[in-house]
Structure formats: structure tokens, C-alpha cells
Amino acid sequence: MRTPEGGAVGRIRVGIDVGGTFTDAVAVSARTFELLGQVKVPTSHHHPDGVAHGIVAALTELLAQVGVAAAEVGFLAHGTTQATNALLEGDVAKVGIVGIGKGFDGWVTGRLRSLGKLKLAPGRTMPVSYAAARDPAGAATAVATLRKAGAEVLVAVEPFSVDDPLGEQAVLAAAAEAGIPATATHEISKLYGLTKRARTAVLNAGIMPRMLETATLVEHGIAAAGITAPLMVMRCDGGVMSLAEMRSRPLLTVLSGPAAGVAGALLAGRISEGVFLETGGTSTDISVIRRGRVQIRHARLGGRDTYLSALDVRTVGVGGGSMIRLAPGQREIAEVGPRSAHIAGLPYACFATAAELAEARLITLRPRAEDPDDYLAIEAAGGRYAITLTCAANALGVVPPGDHAHADPTLARLALTPLALAMGVPVEVAARAVLDQAIRPVRAVLDALLADYRLDRDLLTLVGGGGGAATVTPHLGAETGLDWRIAAHSEVISPLGVALALVRESVERIVPNPGHADVLAVRAEAEAAVVAQGADPAGVEVEVLVDPQRNLVRAIATGATDLRTKDRASTVDDQRAGEIAARSLDAPVAEVLPLAHNGNYRVFGHTRKRGLLRRPRLAVRVVDAEGVVRVHSSDAQVDALTVAEAPARLLELIRDRTRYGDGGARAPAVRLLVGAKVIDLSGVLAVDALLALIDTELRTRAPGETLVAIMEERR
After folding, report:
1. How many CB atoms neighbour CB 231 within 10 A?
2. Is pLDDT above 80 for 397?
3. Residue 687 DSSP one-character state
4. What is the pTM of this model?
5. DSSP 3-state assignment of 335?
């Protein structure tokens, strides 16, 4: 196969997404990020090798389609719903908890028996057994007791193990000696809070045996296919991790499906500020991209808080296959969803032929035994069909030709005719009523996200992904007045996100009164973790947050593998970059001024006056080489200098712009543009810690290299 430019395909990146029904795989050029091929195979839940068989089958078919040898695969990653489904269905291993401690510590760990009440699926709780060890010397006896009780995996728990893990390490050693997989709370999180840390570790352990088995099968299958690239796995925070890391923390794969979709939108869709809506057949997952980053929070699993840092995703039971209910005794739409045609086992009416839709009449049914009996369908010459949101969207003509969800609008209107007759309105009116009702819960979530993250509506773009994207996003955009678009290759946005994802690691520590040495240590740990998993050290970016109120220090490191270097031929020129900045600033191009350029990023500003007695504000936009707005500020100061000048000059600027109040000194929010990096230090308020981090970031840079500092005063 040849690229459009006529060159050989060369090295490729492969992303595979294991869904509940299908396993999708894509091949992407490592040089241009162009989509080279895509395949879909049934997910192999019932094969002796489980989902691993489908992963290898999809990969084999994909390589044949693209026409490259296995040796040309330079990056391979997969995402899976296996862990999520295991927790949702309660299909987990029996967990044995070894509580270490005597006296009060022993009493505290003994209370963790209550984790056996953790609710998973209806009627299914976490299977937990417990054994105590007064000290590390008793670990082997406790392990033997739990093994005899049928435990398949162990969790070591000791109060304050984040400070002194010797007791938990003794349990891990005893488990290894006994041949039982095990995890420890200090490996899962370094945050205090024994119950939450233990809860997270127990959930991690519950899915560990099955995930370990799958990982081994996939690894063997990949090796047998001749691929030498290390296998990576999608995380729930939008990055990927090594297979070794997944083996110790499989819980990080929970909720990785939505994370893969938003990663695809972020990396392939050139989004700086937006809300991503991934619409499938049954539901829509909604998440936020802010300043070019996904938004993360601690996830709730089993109805309880955990220390799992995952994508903040809100799910609404509305998708392309959502079925419709009429209000009792009325002629208006009562609800769209949550049941879908897939659950009811019915085909979409809009994809039937005119002959099959002949003699159609409206009927009601119960998709599942526990559901209401007033979901609408039609009985026609060709059989029984579901009236879906996709039918309504096509009847209004809002699904563009070529889209995955597109149907002939004439046939879609024919499919909706029985509904329109029952409502006593024209087909177009009935179709619009369906779409209006469908987006109500979606809009409610959108409004909540706008408030929670204080998103700027003027900058915001709604981005639709997934096979059903065109059934929700266009109508939502029209009703809210927000810019919107459908992501390219939206039907495979999740495997695209897997293929293009960055290696990621998050490190959190509770450090009372953290000094700059503490902050640097956490930063170094996060950076070292992504480098150890294959990230190119030269491109690692580390975002640091210091929360003095909670004594929390967090570092999130992201890095690209050495093959993720996009062809520079796609670089935008000065004029185009200025137009992009002007559009983001909602200002005339002539009034937007170039402020700095370091070879990778262009900085533009627009001065906005605020009255005679108030100083003007300088609104700033940073545009990268691909035309993405990577940094935006409504009021900032921009300084260009060399790396050699930076230590003295930045010290002066930061001290001049530091503000003092009841809470002490608050340094400005600082972002630095150096080479291809955006160094985000806006989460650091202490001047000493800020200067120490800047020194760490710049010590390997050339003295004459251009650095751009963007600072915002905190209010």
C-alpha cells in the first residue's frame, strides 16, 4: 500500500479497542498520523482464549489490509472494557485481605471485612475473606489461612504503609512464595485514608487474575504474529501504560473506553477547549477538554469513592439506537432511551427497504422483562423494526452522506410515518420532537460541565465521536448555539485514540508543608515512570499541582514514544496561525498581534480596554505547529528571553508579579514554551517551588534557545 504522496507506508502505529460487541483496529502512519486502514471483528468473549483471540485476529486482518509486515509495527496498544464489565457484572475473583497490625491498628484493619459488602452488580457483592497478622513475621501464616479459604488473589493492608511499607512487602513476598497474585495498598496509592486506599486495592485485586490471564494470552499472540514492538494498554486517564504496569494495576483500565475516545478527539481533532460527546448505539459519554488536556478526577466504583484517577466522564442513556416512548394518553414524546434497539434485538427501521416498510403499523413492546411495555416499534411487511433516534435524525436530514449513521432520508421519513400519524403531526415535526427530547438529558450534563469547569462558551467546540455522533451533536449544537463538528473517522475514534495516545503516569503524595525538594521528588518520580515505560525523555511534559490546603502534591507526566513524531509538512504558516488565534479571540485579524515565536509555538495577543481607570487586559493565544490553540488566557503577560537569561530574569518577573494576602504569597500562574514543550506550572503557588521546577526544566536546554514565559496574576 502507498500513501497519497506516493511514499511507502513505512512504520505504523496500531490501536485496538475491545468493545462489548466488536473489536476495532486501526493502523496509523507514524510519520503523518494518517489513517491507513481499519477493521472490525466480533469480540471473542466465548473463545477459549477470551478477548485475546479477537485482538490477535483483528491485528492479523489489519496488517493484511494495509499491506505491511509485522516488523513495521512500531507502536501497538489496545484498550479493553474487560475490567469495567467485570466490575459491572460482579464477575471478580475472591479476594483475601491480610490486615497487618496489633492493638488499635489491628482493630482498624479488621474493620475492612466490611469491604465484602461493596456492591457491584445487582445481587453481587465483592467476595472478601480476611486474616490478621500482628506483624510482618505473621504474614506467611495469614497467607496460608486465606489460601485455604479459597482466596484467588491477596491484598496487603497496613495503616500508614505509604510511609513504611515493610509489613505489606512481607505479605507480597509470602504470596509470591505461595504462588498467589497479590497487591498492596501502598502500590495503588500513596495517599492517606486507609479505607479508601484499601477499597481501591481490593477492586484492583478482584479483576487481577482475569486481566493477568488475558495479558499473557495477548502477549503470546502478538509475539507469534512476529511483532516486536512492546505492547501498551489504554489507561482510564487518556494515556497508555506498559503491559508490566497493567499487570500490577489492572484497575487503571477501568473506564478506559471513554478515555480512548476523548484521546482520539484530542490528538486527531486539534481541540483546545471543548466538550467531547462519544455516541454509540445505547449511550453518550460526555467529557471535557480544557486547555488541550483531558479532565481527571477520582472515580466512584461500586457506588463508593476510590483513589483511581480517571477521566471525568458523564454518561447519558441516549444513543443512536435509543427507542422512543409516547406520553400515556398524549401525543407527545415522553422519553428517548434508555433502552435501545440493540437491547430489544431489533433492526433500525430507517435501514429497511421501502418494500420491507410496507403496511407498517405502530406497536408497543417491552425490550426487557423489567421494562415498561410502551416502547415504540413498527410491524411491517419485512418484520418488526425499532423506531430510533437515528431514524429521526435521518428523517430531518441532519446526518451527512457518508456518515456511519447515514440512511436514505426518504426511507427514514417512511419509517417515522406511523409515529407521526399517532402524534397527529407531520413527519418532520415528529422527528424534531424526538431529537428535542433526546438532547434534554445531554444538555443538562453539558450545562453542569460548563459550570463545573467554568468553560468559556466563546472558545468552546462540541465534538461528536462514535458511530452515532451525528444523531446527537448537530442538534445539540444548533439548540445551544455552540460551535460543533463531527470528528474525522468518528466511527473508529476510540482505536484512533489508542493508536495516538501518549504514555502517561500520575503520582500523588500527601506531604505536610511541602518544600521545593518534596515537589521536585514527586515530579522526578512521575517523569521516571513514563520514561521507564518507553517515553522519549526529551519530550516528557510534567504538570505539577501543589495544594497547600490538603498538603497534596501531584505530578502528571506525559511522553511520546520515539515513533510519535509527526511530519512537519503539516505546519501552519504565520498567516494561518494568526487567523486561528483571531477566531479563538473573537477579534479582527488586523487587531491580533504576534508577540513571540520559539520555532514551535506562535504567541498572539489582543488588547482589550476596560474603562479609563482600569488597565487594559492582554488576551493571549498560543498556536502550535498544527494549528491547535494550546494555551489561552484572558489576561496575561508575555516575555521572550533566552534560556541563559531565564534564571535571573524569571526570578525578577515572578517576584514582581507575586501577590500577598491572608493566605500568604501567591506566585503568578506560569507556563513556559521551550522547544516543543508546554511546561505548565500553573498549579504551583509557592515561589521557591516554582523556581526549583523551572531550574529542573531548563538545565538541559541550550543557553541560546528561545524561551517564552506566559504569566497570569492570581486573583
Report:
1. 22
2. yes
3. H
4. 0.81
5. strand
